[in-house]
Amino acid sequence: MPLDYPVLLLPATLLLALFLLLVLWVQLPRLRASTRRRRIERVVRRLGGEYLRDVMLPDPVDGHLQIDYLVLAPRSLLVLDVRPYEGAIFAGASLDAWTQMIGRRSFKFANPLADVRLRCAALAPYAQAIPVEGRVVFTREAWFPKGVPEGVSRLDELVQDIGTTPGEGEPGPKLREAWTRIKAAVQPAVLPAPRYPRRTSYALLVALLGLLLVSARLVV
What we know:
The model has no long low-confidence stretch (mean pLDDT 81). Strand 5 and strand 6 form a beta hairpin. Helix 1 runs antiparallel to helix 5 (199-219). Helices cover 44% and strands 26% of the residues. Strands 9-7-3-2-1-10 form a six-stranded mixed beta sheet. It is an alpha/beta fold and 220 residues long. It is built from five helices and ten strands, in the order H-E-E-E-E-E-E-H-E-E-E-H-H-E-H.
């Protein structure tokens, strides 16, 4: 019996569309992470002409300290601890634990300001007389219903909070010397690979099997 190709074409097209949507769904966390990183680095470049990302700094107490971003600003060195959190953040400089609220769910996490102070202290021997400033940075998906603590910024307000004016001047010789010492001391950080939900793999497998079944019917 001759095949009715127009009839078979519709389910094949629908399955192909479903497959493409599932591929997009699987890649969505990676796309969001890539977009977030580009957004962060656009802001970081406004703070200074040079920066280091994801580096390990030797520390006599803890061995090594991981730094998200270290920026060579016109007048100082900036240590940025980036928190890509979403939802409402309830925080206070004197609180040991902060709270993240996403809908009705709540999550506790340690006050990150202490970690930033440790990183600034570890940089002090390399910076010598150069000021080292630390800042915890939350991306735009987070907001602070009770106010933003001192030493914390949302990404969109970071440049204003730091007080850096783009193009205000080049770092001086002593700041350059400190930057050279730091670059010689740090090494790339080994970060864990991001984990994504496994259910997306099963969904892709189902869509692929559907495409194979339709292809088999077209061939037979």
